[in-house]
Amino acid sequence: MIGTNDRLAPNSGRLSRPSAIKTGTEIPVTTLSNLVYRLNEQTIIDNISLRLSEKRIGLVGCNGSGKSTLARLICGLIKPTSGKIIVDGIDVSKDRKSAIEKVGIIFQNPDHQIIFPTVEEEIAFGLSQTGQSDSEARKEARDFLSAFGKGDWRDKPVHALSEGQKHLVCLLSVLAMKPQLIILDEPFSGPDLPTTRRLLRYLESLKEAILLITHDVSFLTGFDRIIWIDAGRILMDGAPEKVLDEFLGTMELRGQSDDFTDFAG
Prior knowledge:
four-stranded antiparallel β-sheet
């Protein structure tokens, strides 16, 4: 894992969290109890129970295993068919306002997340969802960008940004809401290598808890815990060395198979 001392500095085209910015640094306890999610009579999440309290957790599995659905459930973006998700005492499926103050999510494709034409508007929107007035949210968005050395981005059209810059806007939008848990759903499949390395270094410096969904296990070096999900169920959960060894071995065996069922999604 890239060292935390190699931090991103604001005035060199890089990024560093200023000490004046307050964030949700206390690691929340997230509890999933008998969680089930069905869509069109298909079971996507099948009776999952977990207690998440580590600072860095990786979530792995094949395409279609339920990883992204589980992430959206934890964020409260979709409601479970049955069961509960409690993050730091908040039922995220019932209290959306409190949920967005506890959990933030960054999607694989920033274009699926960014909805406003300028950077300031994008960051202000998230702040307005926490109960701030439009003027308060816009001011805090400007202050936040300035504190990160990106004050000149406030009026930038989002469509004119590079892929890496869009990812950074998504990250800043989430950080501005000061969540305690940040979920990243395959965030490194789009950016080029330099952008990926910069984002990795910055993410490593964060004090917030991170749940990272990824196919590339090299991003999980130094993590505290790995959860392997398959067909909507937890197949393995524990220390990274043990889980990833089993996971990679199984993926290798599946890669040697002539069964193309997994390619259906």
